[in-house]
Amino acid sequence: MKKKLIRSESIQEFQKTVIACRKCPRLVHYLQDIHKTYPSYWCKPVPGFGDTKAQILLLGLAPGRFGSNRTGRMFTGDASGKFLFKALYTLRLANRPTAEDVNDSLQLFNTYITAVVRCAPPQNKPTQPEIRTCIEYARQELKLLPNLKVVVALGKIAHDGYLYLMGEKQSHHPFKHGAVHLFAEEPTLVDIYHPSRQNTQTSLLTMNMFLKVLSQAKKIACNK
Known about the structure:
The chain has helices at 11-19, 25-37, 68-71, 79-90, 128-143, 156-166, 197-201, 207-221, and strands at 49-50, 56-60, 111-115, 150-154, 180-181, 188-192. It is an alpha/beta fold.
Protein backbone atom coordinates (compact mmCIF):
# COMPACT_ATOMS: atom_id res chain seq x y z
CA MET A 1 0.00 0.00 0.00
CA LYS A 2 1.21 3.47 -0.78
CA LYS A 3 -0.38 5.22 2.20
CA LYS A 4 0.34 4.81 5.87
CA LEU A 5 -1.74 2.08 7.46
CA ILE A 6 -3.76 2.35 10.65
CA ARG A 7 -2.42 0.00 13.32
CA SER A 8 -4.50 -2.69 15.00
CA GLU A 9 -3.48 -5.69 17.08
CA SER A 10 -5.88 -8.16 15.51
CA ILE A 11 -8.81 -8.33 13.16
CA GLN A 12 -11.13 -8.78 16.16
CA GLU A 13 -9.85 -5.56 17.75
CA PHE A 14 -10.08 -3.85 14.39
CA GLN A 15 -13.73 -4.86 14.01
CA LYS A 16 -14.48 -3.33 17.42
CA THR A 17 -12.86 -0.10 16.21
CA VAL A 18 -15.08 -0.11 13.12
CA ILE A 19 -18.25 -0.64 15.15
CA ALA A 20 -17.33 2.25 17.47
CA CYS A 21 -16.66 4.69 14.60
CA ARG A 22 -18.62 7.97 14.58
CA LYS A 23 -16.55 9.94 12.07
CA CYS A 24 -19.31 10.86 9.60
CA PRO A 25 -22.02 13.06 11.22
CA ARG A 26 -24.56 12.64 8.41
CA LEU A 27 -24.40 8.85 8.62
CA VAL A 28 -24.44 8.83 12.43
CA HIS A 29 -27.60 10.96 12.48
CA TYR A 30 -29.22 8.86 9.76
CA LEU A 31 -28.66 5.65 11.70
CA GLN A 32 -29.96 7.27 14.89
CA ASP A 33 -33.15 8.25 13.08
CA ILE A 34 -33.62 4.70 11.76
CA HIS A 35 -33.07 3.28 15.24
CA LYS A 36 -35.86 5.45 16.64
CA THR A 37 -38.28 3.76 14.24
CA TYR A 38 -36.71 0.31 14.35
CA PRO A 39 -35.11 -0.13 17.80
CA SER A 40 -34.22 -3.77 17.12
CA TYR A 41 -32.01 -2.84 14.14
CA TRP A 42 -28.20 -2.92 14.42
CA CYS A 43 -27.87 0.73 13.26
CA LYS A 44 -24.10 0.92 13.74
CA PRO A 45 -21.11 0.55 11.42
CA VAL A 46 -21.00 -2.99 10.03
CA PRO A 47 -17.65 -4.81 10.24
CA GLY A 48 -16.35 -7.21 7.62
CA PHE A 49 -16.53 -10.94 8.23
CA GLY A 50 -15.37 -14.28 6.90
CA ASP A 51 -12.29 -16.46 6.70
CA THR A 52 -9.34 -14.52 8.13
CA LYS A 53 -7.01 -16.72 6.06
CA ALA A 54 -8.93 -15.88 2.89
CA GLN A 55 -7.32 -15.49 -0.51
CA ILE A 56 -10.47 -13.81 -1.88
CA LEU A 57 -11.99 -10.55 -0.65
CA LEU A 58 -15.39 -9.34 -1.82
CA LEU A 59 -15.63 -5.56 -1.62
CA GLY A 60 -19.12 -4.10 -1.63
CA LEU A 61 -20.52 -0.56 -1.52
CA ALA A 62 -22.27 -0.06 1.84
CA PRO A 63 -24.77 -1.75 4.15
CA GLY A 64 -28.38 -1.74 3.00
CA ARG A 65 -30.87 0.02 5.26
CA PHE A 66 -33.02 -3.09 5.71
CA GLY A 67 -30.24 -5.64 5.22
CA SER A 68 -26.85 -5.32 6.91
CA ASN A 69 -27.97 -2.25 8.85
CA ARG A 70 -30.72 -4.40 10.34
CA THR A 71 -28.75 -7.60 10.98
CA GLY A 72 -25.24 -6.27 11.67
CA ARG A 73 -23.51 -8.51 9.13
CA MET A 74 -22.45 -7.72 5.58
CA PHE A 75 -24.95 -8.70 2.84
CA THR A 76 -27.18 -10.44 5.37
CA GLY A 77 -30.95 -10.16 5.25
CA ASP A 78 -31.66 -8.56 1.87
CA ALA A 79 -32.02 -9.39 -1.83
CA SER A 80 -28.38 -8.66 -2.66
CA GLY A 81 -27.24 -11.10 0.00
CA LYS A 82 -29.70 -13.74 -1.16
CA PHE A 83 -28.13 -13.58 -4.62
CA LEU A 84 -24.55 -13.40 -3.34
CA PHE A 85 -24.64 -16.27 -0.86
CA LYS A 86 -26.37 -18.57 -3.32
CA ALA A 87 -23.42 -17.98 -5.65
CA LEU A 88 -20.83 -18.49 -2.90
CA TYR A 89 -22.49 -21.74 -1.87
CA THR A 90 -22.55 -22.94 -5.48
CA LEU A 91 -18.79 -22.37 -5.72
CA ARG A 92 -18.18 -23.99 -2.32
CA LEU A 93 -17.09 -20.72 -0.76
CA ALA A 94 -19.86 -20.87 1.86
CA ASN A 95 -21.45 -23.65 3.90
CA ARG A 96 -25.03 -22.59 3.20
CA PRO A 97 -26.87 -20.78 0.37
CA THR A 98 -28.70 -18.25 2.54
CA ALA A 99 -27.93 -15.64 5.18
CA GLU A 100 -30.74 -14.41 7.41
CA ASP A 101 -29.07 -13.24 10.62
CA VAL A 102 -25.81 -13.36 12.56
CA ASN A 103 -26.85 -16.57 14.35
CA ASP A 104 -27.53 -18.65 11.23
CA SER A 105 -24.24 -20.63 11.39
CA LEU A 106 -23.02 -19.23 8.06
CA GLN A 107 -19.34 -19.87 7.36
CA LEU A 108 -17.24 -18.59 4.48
CA PHE A 109 -14.38 -20.59 3.00
CA ASN A 110 -11.30 -18.81 1.63
CA THR A 111 -13.46 -15.68 1.39
CA TYR A 112 -13.86 -12.46 3.37
CA ILE A 113 -16.57 -9.84 2.79
CA THR A 114 -16.35 -6.13 3.52
CA ALA A 115 -17.42 -2.79 2.06
CA VAL A 116 -16.13 0.62 1.07
CA VAL A 117 -18.53 2.33 3.52
CA ARG A 118 -19.59 0.69 6.81
CA CYS A 119 -22.74 2.68 7.60
CA ALA A 120 -25.98 2.58 5.63
CA PRO A 121 -26.18 5.89 3.71
CA PRO A 122 -29.37 7.76 2.77
CA GLN A 123 -30.66 6.61 -0.64
CA ASN A 124 -27.74 4.15 -0.64
CA LYS A 125 -25.49 7.01 -1.80
CA PRO A 126 -22.46 7.86 0.35
CA THR A 127 -20.73 11.17 -0.32
CA GLN A 128 -17.15 11.32 -1.57
CA PRO A 129 -15.87 12.60 1.80
CA GLU A 130 -17.63 9.68 3.51
CA ILE A 131 -16.06 7.24 1.07
CA ARG A 132 -12.59 8.72 1.57
CA THR A 133 -12.98 8.57 5.34
CA CYS A 134 -14.30 5.02 5.52
CA ILE A 135 -12.07 3.48 2.83
CA GLU A 136 -9.18 3.75 5.29
CA TYR A 137 -10.77 0.92 7.25
CA ALA A 138 -10.60 -1.24 4.12
CA ARG A 139 -6.92 -0.34 3.85
CA GLN A 140 -6.32 -1.75 7.33
CA GLU A 141 -8.49 -4.78 6.63
CA LEU A 142 -6.35 -5.65 3.62
CA LYS A 143 -3.30 -5.54 5.84
CA LEU A 144 -4.93 -7.89 8.35
CA LEU A 145 -5.67 -10.47 5.63
CA PRO A 146 -2.13 -11.49 4.63
CA ASN A 147 -3.11 -14.34 2.28
CA LEU A 148 -5.20 -12.22 -0.09
CA LYS A 149 -4.62 -12.76 -3.79
CA VAL A 150 -7.81 -11.39 -5.33
CA VAL A 151 -10.14 -8.49 -4.55
CA VAL A 152 -13.54 -8.80 -6.22
CA ALA A 153 -15.11 -5.36 -6.62
CA LEU A 154 -18.89 -5.55 -6.46
CA GLY A 155 -19.64 -2.50 -8.58
CA LYS A 156 -17.82 0.60 -9.76
CA ILE A 157 -17.63 2.39 -6.40
CA ALA A 158 -15.86 -0.62 -4.89
CA HIS A 159 -13.62 -0.77 -7.96
CA ASP A 160 -12.71 2.91 -7.65
CA GLY A 161 -12.16 2.54 -3.91
CA TYR A 162 -9.65 -0.26 -4.35
CA LEU A 163 -7.78 1.70 -7.03
CA TYR A 164 -7.63 4.64 -4.63
CA LEU A 165 -6.03 2.41 -2.00
CA MET A 166 -3.53 1.15 -4.56
CA GLY A 167 -2.69 4.68 -5.66
CA GLU A 168 -3.71 3.70 -9.21
CA LYS A 169 -5.49 5.87 -11.79
CA GLN A 170 -9.02 4.97 -12.82
CA SER A 171 -8.16 5.90 -16.40
CA HIS A 172 -5.61 3.09 -16.47
CA HIS A 173 -8.03 0.56 -15.00
CA PRO A 174 -11.63 1.29 -16.11
CA PHE A 175 -14.45 -0.68 -14.52
CA LYS A 176 -15.92 -3.41 -16.70
CA HIS A 177 -17.83 -6.48 -15.65
CA GLY A 178 -15.48 -9.44 -15.90
CA ALA A 179 -12.33 -7.33 -16.21
CA VAL A 180 -9.14 -8.47 -14.47
CA HIS A 181 -6.63 -5.83 -13.36
CA LEU A 182 -3.11 -6.95 -12.47
CA PHE A 183 -0.70 -5.11 -10.17
CA ALA A 184 2.97 -5.69 -9.50
CA GLU A 185 2.67 -6.61 -5.82
CA GLU A 186 -0.91 -6.10 -4.62
CA PRO A 187 -3.89 -8.48 -4.96
CA THR A 188 -5.45 -8.75 -8.41
CA LEU A 189 -8.67 -6.77 -8.94
CA VAL A 190 -11.65 -8.50 -10.58
CA ASP A 191 -14.79 -6.51 -11.50
CA ILE A 192 -18.38 -7.72 -11.15
CA TYR A 193 -21.63 -5.79 -11.37
CA HIS A 194 -23.07 -5.28 -7.90
CA PRO A 195 -25.77 -7.89 -7.10
CA SER A 196 -28.32 -5.21 -6.29
CA ARG A 197 -32.02 -5.85 -6.81
CA GLN A 198 -31.99 -3.28 -9.61
CA ASN A 199 -29.21 -5.10 -11.48
CA THR A 200 -30.54 -8.62 -10.98
CA GLN A 201 -34.21 -7.88 -11.68
CA THR A 202 -33.35 -6.10 -14.93
CA SER A 203 -30.98 -8.95 -15.89
CA LEU A 204 -28.06 -6.57 -16.17
CA LEU A 205 -26.54 -9.21 -13.89
CA THR A 206 -27.64 -12.84 -14.07
CA MET A 207 -26.57 -15.68 -11.81
CA ASN A 208 -24.64 -17.28 -14.67
CA MET A 209 -22.78 -14.01 -15.30
CA PHE A 210 -21.95 -13.67 -11.64
CA LEU A 211 -20.80 -17.28 -11.26
CA LYS A 212 -18.61 -17.08 -14.34
CA VAL A 213 -16.62 -14.11 -13.05
CA LEU A 214 -16.52 -15.25 -9.43
CA SER A 215 -15.31 -18.67 -10.59
CA GLN A 216 -12.54 -16.93 -12.51
CA ALA A 217 -11.55 -15.01 -9.38
CA LYS A 218 -11.45 -18.27 -7.43
CA LYS A 219 -9.16 -19.85 -10.03
CA ILE A 220 -6.82 -16.85 -9.89
CA ALA A 221 -6.71 -17.05 -6.09
CA CYS A 222 -5.96 -20.77 -6.16
CA ASN A 223 -3.48 -20.46 -9.05
CA LYS A 224 -5.51 -22.81 -11.25
